[in-house]
Design the sequence.
């Protein structure tokens, strides 16, 4: 097979589609549904970028059962043709910065699960983005406090697990508090993981699972990254008045889709295009541009020495990188395009290497792109200076100028970022 821009693009798009299909709630959720209660109510709650489609999957599978509930998702992440008679209401909030709509939805879900009995079932549908979408300030804090905290977290460059540790200790909803409010009802969580290691306590900040983190750890994270929090939020961490739940009764947690499942699907798709796949891992973290440089080095080694494997092959990876933004910097794009631009500069237009970096939710950072794909000529096709774009965090503009942005719109699922590097 002759590898060129056209054949590489076809293979990259096939792998991208395979990742999204592997995490589609309409196909992966129903097998994990629990036995419905013999008597008692079914209440469905949820938060995240996949919440609307997860709710539809439940309504479809349990069409014969009486149920009601509420989920919150991002604006634009609703179903294209929503059911006419929804039993599970869908509301919308902002991500990554919280808003009043998301806070109100979280408060309503919290109220919805109170006063239940051991005969009732709470089915919780959690996915990436749920932390921001269900931001409900702890007593003594305001939504403005939480918005300021969230912006500081995003600016810091901290890993998602560290950010969610701080969030959980300033929340009235996450860190196991939703499940605690539902006691003594049975709480079953179905989750789509978007976090390295698939930690239940990190996915949507774990509103239905015991919280292993502490106030002391949250304070240490704030200090380590030099964050400046609102006075009320800092006082809440210092007071450490009511620790998050460390044990929860009558709860269970089930992963229905994960980054590694998506990577295995991508590997199968790669083989149909004549590529030998190598999965590097689903939890590659660190500064986005630096990971791009590392992946470029591995690709150059494969192209030159046949190590870690000889072409035609593809290096696959997942995981959430970070972009550390100096105070006052706006930028454009997100983790995926910044990783890809770092890779492009290190590859120096190698003629036999192509790549794709994209976020499986369809939104990279604050942009309208899922990510981008790279050809040997991408930097040359752009009218912009690539190094300047990397230095100013304007990677989106570079790939827009080159015409290689991947724009899909919201995918209604989320198993984190995926990356594919083809060596032809």
Sequence:
């Amino acid at each position: 097979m002759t590898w060129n821009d056209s054949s590489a693009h076809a293979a990259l798009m096939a792998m991208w589609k395979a990742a999204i299909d592997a995490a589609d709630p309409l196909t992966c959720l129903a097998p994990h549904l629990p036995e419905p209660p013999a008597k008692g109510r079914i209440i469905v709650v949820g938060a995240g970028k996949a919440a609307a489609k997860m709710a539809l999957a439940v309504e479809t599978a349990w069409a014969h059962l009486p149920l009601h509930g509420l989920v919150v998702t991002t604006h634009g992440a609703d179903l294209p043709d929503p059911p006419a008679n929804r039993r599970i209401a869908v509301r919308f909030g902002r991500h990554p910065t919280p808003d009043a709509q998301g806070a109100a939805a979280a408060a309503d879900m919290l109220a919805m699960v109170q006063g239940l009995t051991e005969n009732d079932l709470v089915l919780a549908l959690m996915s990436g983005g749920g932390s921001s979408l269900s931001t409900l300030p702890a007593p003594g804090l305001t939504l403005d406090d939480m918005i300021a905290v969230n912006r500081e977290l995003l600016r810091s460059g901290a890993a998602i697990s560290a950010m969610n540790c701080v969030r959980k200790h300033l929340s009235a909803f996450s860190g196991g508090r939703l499940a605690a409010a539902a006691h003594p009802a049975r709480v079953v969580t179905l989750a789509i993981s978007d976090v390295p290691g698939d930690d239940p306590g990190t996915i949507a900040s774990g509103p239905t699972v015991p919280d292993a983190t502490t106030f002391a750890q949250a304070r240490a994270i704030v200090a380590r990254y030099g964050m400046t929090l609102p006075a009320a939020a800092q006082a809440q961490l210092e007071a450490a008045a009511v620790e998050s739940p460390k044990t929860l009764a009558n709860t269970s947690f089930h992963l229905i889709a994960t980054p590694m499942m998506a990577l295995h699907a991508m590997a199968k798709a790669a083989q149909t295009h004549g590529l030998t796949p190598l999965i590097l891992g689903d939890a590659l973290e660190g500064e986005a541009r630096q990971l791009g440089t590392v992946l470029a080095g591995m690709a150059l080694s494969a192209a030159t020495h046949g190590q870690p494997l000889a072409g035609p092959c593809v290096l696959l990876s997942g995981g959430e990188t970070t972009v550390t933004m100096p105070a006052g910097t706006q930028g454009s794009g997100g983790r995926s395009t910044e990783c890809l631009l770092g890779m492009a500069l290190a590859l120096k237009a190698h003629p036999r290497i192509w790549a794709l970096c994209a976020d499986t939710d369809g939104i990279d950072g604050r942009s309208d792109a899922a990510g981008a794909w790279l050809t040997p000529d991408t930097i040359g096709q752009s009218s912009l200076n690539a190094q300047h774009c990397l230095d100013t965090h304007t990677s989106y503009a570079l790939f827009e100028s080159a015409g290689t942005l991947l724009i899909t719109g919201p995918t209604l699922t989320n198993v984190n970022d995926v990356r594919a590097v083809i060596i032809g």
